[in-house]
Every structure is written in structure tokens, then in C-alpha cells.
Input
Amino acid sequence: MTASWSHRIMQRSEVTNDPIQGEFFNTDGVKNRAGALIRESGQNTQDAPIGSPIEFPPRLELSLTTLKPLSESKALARWFDGIWLHQMAPGNGLSSSPEQTEAMRVLLVEDFNTHGLRGDINHEDTAVGSKNDFCQFFRICGRSGKGKDSLGSWGIGRTVFPSTGRANCFFAFSSREGSPASVLMGLSILKTHNLEDNTRRFPYGYYGEHASDGFCLPVIAESELAQFRADFGLKRQSETGLSVVIPWVDPEITGDELIDNAIREYALPILQGRFVVVVREGEIETRIDKHSLDGLLAARSERIGAEMLPLLRLARCGLGALEENRVLLAESTSLKPPEWSESLFPGGRLMALREQFSRGEAVILRVPVTIQKKLGDRQSSYFDVFIERDLNGSSVRPMFVREGLIVSRVECPRPKGIRAVVNSEAGPLAAFLRDSENPAHTEWKENGEKFRGKYEYGPTWLRFVRQSVDRIAMVLAGDPEKEDRETFKSEFSLPQDQPGLRKRRRVKKVKPGPDTPDLPVVVVPLRESGLSVSQVDGGFVVRRGNLSKPLPKRISIRAAYDVRKGNAFDQWRKPDFQFDRDVSFAVSGCKIETSDGNRAVVSPEREEFEVFVLGFDADRDLKVDVREMESENE
Output
């Protein structure tokens, strides 16, 4: 069977369909066609590694070359047999159809250290979520078969390849494991169009071997495949991976544009040594890897943007930070995200962090999050924030990164004089963020089709991440003397919301213990233990106050609104509040064993720990009882 191009005849009952998926990529976040191409091909390459990205980093090679006009080369013309009827058809959607008499400028997009298009070539469809790379790439649009750790997930990105060329078509050659070992097929995307014989043609056309029912199979004959590689100058020989050939590539696709966009889109994985890009134009070859990145940035700062170099320097500092230099913020024990406040920061380090920040030094933070799908299990995850003051006072958009992909148009506050990188590696949070992204993967949207209604408190957590830079900057820029360093207090009032200045009520000291009902454990009064309790906005914090005292094994924390007569703890009722429903916990260096009613039990895990308990009524006095528990059985 001879291979050719064909758009099948449509049945009378079929609806006219004019594909427009390429328009999804015409957003502010993807600056041009070169940017869209780099973004899509880079995602595909990194989503198909054959081993560890550190040991065998996926490599994307882009080669621009110019071939003879088809009118002067029968060897090239045979690969376009059957396409010209459709290229010349009126109403096919092409704005500038190529001529057979013009030289053919070609872009080769090849990936290496990748597994290629795997799967049964005879399948016309796949079950939702199943893996058949070949079928997904050629025969399905709008549904992705990529796994949860993939960079892309919309299933329409491959339409970037034809839209990069004036003919809106491309060839794909893939070497892969299994049988057949190599395959070649082409895809053309036009509008529904009529030929001279008055037949209405389907917008998706294929190059390959066509059955009588219109189903197309790839070319697998080794002699044909070898000739194709030679005619178009493919670098691939026997290595697994994918080679895409885009004929009559758009004139705006240049070597410089490809280099600039590769750096803009994938600087972080390149910096980490997990991704390599090679660009060739004529005799000039540029390799972008972790060794050459700094030099290329310095030489191309006017093209790429002067802000990129300091952002990547900050990213390098954060990614290479030692564990002891990375500050872990407190974790919320409820499904809701905590409020951004001083309470999330380790109290013993906040003053030092502020001083470090004021000197213009980088602060490296790890922020725990809790992700839960509706009717799913709760999953712990995190994101990292690398933040520093820009002593020149510039206003720089924070860099948001999801699994190495720079999400360039995230809506967020942009605090003046702050430089920051927000980085989410593979995990539950990365999957959460990916679900919120638009098809071009440039924005995080609360009302996105794949995100809306999928997660518990999804929009709230998304805002928590988006606002992180602004909120963290506010805390780090605060007055260190503002912290309440009162210790050995177990009863106080919460601040009252008033217009203008918030006034703090008088903090009262009480003697702990006598008015507390007996517990089935031996308790040590707070004054004799190494614990301290301090007031914070919205609640209180329990810390280790005296490091000379032994680290307690377990701690009992109780709270109740104060009453005029009698024991406040005896008169606590569920409508007042419940720890497991109405109150938020943020912990660092310890874990919550139980949380029920108005009592929680905490187990310290580090020498320095903190428990923030927040969410109380600001108009009522709060009484707190904190005791070290000595019984092993409690």
C-alpha cells in the first residue's frame, strides 16, 4: 500500500468542525509562536524520560534548515503526494499557502533520552486515562493520556506543531520499544473544506497508508523510514524518541527566538541539570545546559530581560540550600489553609530571618500544605519560596514554577522591591496546580474546567499559594519588637476588631492548676515546666520556654471562654467552639495526637517546637490551660 496525504470525505450527517485549538496558545503568557512551540515540545520531552532525568537528562534538539523547492526535488515531492488538493482548496483556513516552487524552510524538533510514541498503532481510541502515546498523539484531541506527574494534561498541545508551519501540517517519526520499532505518520489540520469534486472533507488529514474506511496506519517499512531520515536530515538513527518535521516553518521562527524562549520557559530544569536544549540554525549550534546557561543569560540579557539573571541566581541559591538553612513553616492540621501571619514562622528564628531579609540576603522557606480531593484522602505536600529584597527597589513579577515549568502569568500581588521564586516539585500540590492551569499552562485559575469543585477548599489553597510572596514579604519586613514575648501566662484576651487601630486587652496572670478538674495523669503546673504560652492575633501559641528543662513527651492543651463565676473549663460547651471543627492548628517540630472538644494532646518531636491555636471569638476572653503530661498511658 502506497503512503499519501488524505482528508477523508465527510458524511452528510456530520457536523462541520473548524478546529481552533491552536488559539488556546495565543495568550499573554506565550509570547509568540516560538514560545508556544518550545513550551509544548519541552513538556513532551520531559514527560517521556527513559531513566533518571539527572543521570540521563532528556534533550530537545531543534534544527532549522532550508531544502530545495519541491518542483526541483522529486525525492522531497513524494512525501507530499495528495496534499495539494487540500492546500489549495478554498476556505481551508490557511492564510498563506506555500508554493511548490519556493524553497522549503524546515524545522526539526527531536527529543532524545526519551521513550518515543509507544502503544498499539491499530487502536483508533483509548480508554480515558489509559496509556497509548501513539494514539493520543495522532488520534485524540482534548483528552490527555498523560499521567499525574506530567507537565501537560489538556491533550491539545500537539496542535502547536502544525500551526507553526504555513501549511498547517507535520510529520512525526518515532523509534520506540516494541513492534513496530519505528513508525512514520503525518497530520494536517485545516478547516472543513470542499474539493473541486464537491466532496466535503474532514479537517483532520493524515499521511500514511489509508484503508478503505479512511483509517490511516503509519509507514513502518525500514527502507521508507531510512529514506525519510535522509531526505529531511534527521539526527535520529536508532535512538528511541520522537522527531517532528515541520515544513514551510513560519518566518518568525528563528534560532535566536528558539534560544530565548527555551531559556525563558525552562531555565530551572536546565539549571538543575534535568533538561538540555540544543538549537541549530545553518552551521551555528547552541547548547543550553547547566554549564552554559549563565553565559547565555549574560550575553542575551537585553533580549530575555534583565530580571531573569537575578531570579535564576536566587533559584540556584534556593535549590542548593542546605537543610539547616531551609526554614520549615508551621503546618495546618485542618483542611483549610492557615492565615498568612507571624504564627506560621518559627518564633525562635523570625527575628534572625527579618535581619537576614533586611540585609538583602535570600530567605529559603518550605511551606507545608494539605491537599484533598472531594471524597479523597488527605495528602500532605509543600512548596518552596526563595525570597530576597531587591535593594534597588525594582518591581519584579515573582517567578512561579510547577515541576520545572515556569507558569508565567499567575495573578498575584507584586510587592515593590521584592524578588521571589515559588517552586512546586512533583507531588500532590503540583497535581493540584496543574489542574488549575489553562491549556497553555501559563495561569492558575480558580474556575478552571479541570479544577472547579474538585478539591476541598481548592480556591482558598490556590490563593494561599498565589499570595505567598506578598504575605511572606509583609511578615519579613515587620518590626521584630512587635512580637509578643510574654511567657508563663495561661489566660489572656484576644484582640478586638475595631475600625483603625486594633487595641489589645489587658493580659491577666492566673495561678494555674487549682481550678482545673483532675485528669487521669500526673500533671506539672505550667510555672514549673519548660513551657510558655503567648497571645497572638486570633489565638495563642505554646512554645518551649525553658530549654534547661527536659523536653516533655506529651502536652495537654485546653481552652475555654472565661466566665464570671465558676470554672470556665467546666462550663465549656460545644457551641462555643470545637478544636476539631472550628479551630485551626499550625504546628512546627511536633504533631497533634488528638484534637477533640476543647482539648488537644501534642507530642514534641524537636527540641524547639511551636503550636499555634487560632480561630477564636475576638470579643470574648479566653482561658488556656497547658500542662506537661507525665503518664505513658494517657
Notes: The radius of gyration is 31 Å. The chain has three domains: 4-305, 314-476, 484-629.
